[in-house]
Amino acid sequence: MPKHRASESSSTRGAASTAHPLATGAAVRVLEQGGSAVDAAIAAQAVISVVLPQAAGLGGDVLALVHDRGRVSAVNGTGRSPRALTSQPEASGGSSVTVPGLVDGWVTLSARWGRLPLSELLAPAIELADGGIVPEASLIAAVDQQHARLEHGGAADWSLLTAADGLWKQPELAELLGRIGGMGRDAFYEGRGAVALVDAVRRCGGSLDQLDLAGHDTPCPPTISVPWSDGAVHVQPPMSQGVLLALALQEVRRMAARGIPVDDHLLVEITGAAFEHRSSCGRGAELLDVDLDVDHERASGRAGPRAYLHTAGVATVDADGQVVSSLVSVFDDFGSGVFVPELGIVLNNRAAGFTDGDNSAAPGKRPVHTLAPAMVTSAHGVLGIATPGADGQIQTLLQVLVARDLSATALSDAVGALRWRSQDGDLLIEEGHPRADALAERGHRIVARTPGADVFGAVVAAGTDPTPHAVADWRRETDTRGAA
Hints:
Elements: E1 7-10, E2 14-18, H1 21-32, H2 37-51, E3 61-68, E4 71-77, H3 102-113, H4 118-131, H5 137-155, H6 171-183, H7 186-189, H8 191-203, H9 210-214, E5 224-228, E6 231-235, H10 243-257, H11 264-275, E7 312-318, E8 323-329, E9 339-340, E10 345-346, E11 374-378, E12 381-386, H12 392-405, H13 411-416, E13 420-423, E14 426-430, H14 436-441, E15 446-449, E16 460-464, E17 468-472, E18 479-482
Parallel strand pairs: 14-15
Antiparallel strand pairs: 1-17, 2-7, 2-18, 3-4, 3-8, 5-6, 6-11, 7-8, 9-10, 11-12, 12-16, 13-14, 16-17
Helix pairs in contact: 1-2, 2-3, 2-4, 4-6, 10-11, 10-12, 11-12
């Protein structure tokens, strides 16, 4: 077996691949109880909110693609900036908070594709929050790095900041999850939960108010799709930058059709050319009409993708062929750093995602999101695939899909292979990558990194081919399991 090979699971009853073993266990538990892939995804996302609060939580967002009965649908569980926004938000603090979309995203997903009550789906997360977890090294490291920012955001008395050596319990979060299970969205966007959230934002200089929360919605627009191999790739429409993946794959397909060998150099250059249009992602499918300027021989040195990362992935499939590809996130580590003590959550800093042009900050507006889950459909089956890593998401998925579908590499090997990531003009590359020297010879500024570093993502994937199966990266704490 290759040194770096993704793990695989399959079962006729369904399978799950997630960012954490406990989340995978919750998803499989739901599948075994007769839940749908969507039910399993919600359960896993809720557990992630308990065990990986630095990456995701109820103060953040969800973007999901759902394949059901031959159709792929998008769910945009992200929020708008405050209606009272008057200036460019800061990178952190109260002004960086947009309306959290995760909770209403769950309610929307459950109502449309769920089989089990929301209360049952949240039960595993409630058990963990009530009973306590031992914080893992990655969480403790994130707390150490963000300690000052969290204290500034009102978390000085948060038990997580002193839980390094013992069991960490989250009674406020457990109570909130329980109320959501019983009351749905009103437990979060109305009443005392909404009051507590708004108070926390305003203490930290933000302008979010209760009307912003009460007016929140979860759009389910059509996906953006491009032909790929013998099928199609579906990505999130605005305000996700998933269209950049569609744009890149479209360029790869055109080159391959002209007989041009598509190597890593071209993939790096296609990435850089696509990311020049990041601020225009709101144009959606119209962006597919732009021509990409790609140097076939030498590195352009484009600054391109930025250096931030984070987020957590969940991919699930059930016995009926329903498939989910999703990402949950608070953006930066612990998002804005704004802590809501009454709810036990930190809030996102997605307003820091506003940039320029079409993506300039404005009141009541969704910024372009880095979250970019994908779905591949063909006569052979369906594959839901996603990865954390902000601007690295497009690049990781591009490498995996090109390897799988152009080079006929097994998915587990394509996910397990060493990767590169273009970032701020550098080309970060995992040590031992077989084409590092060739890329350097063509002018790429190579920066070697330890294999498995967070910057290279952590793929989760699930689908049918034809049996339900799941694949999980060897990077980070991803885990896969089939239902018993």
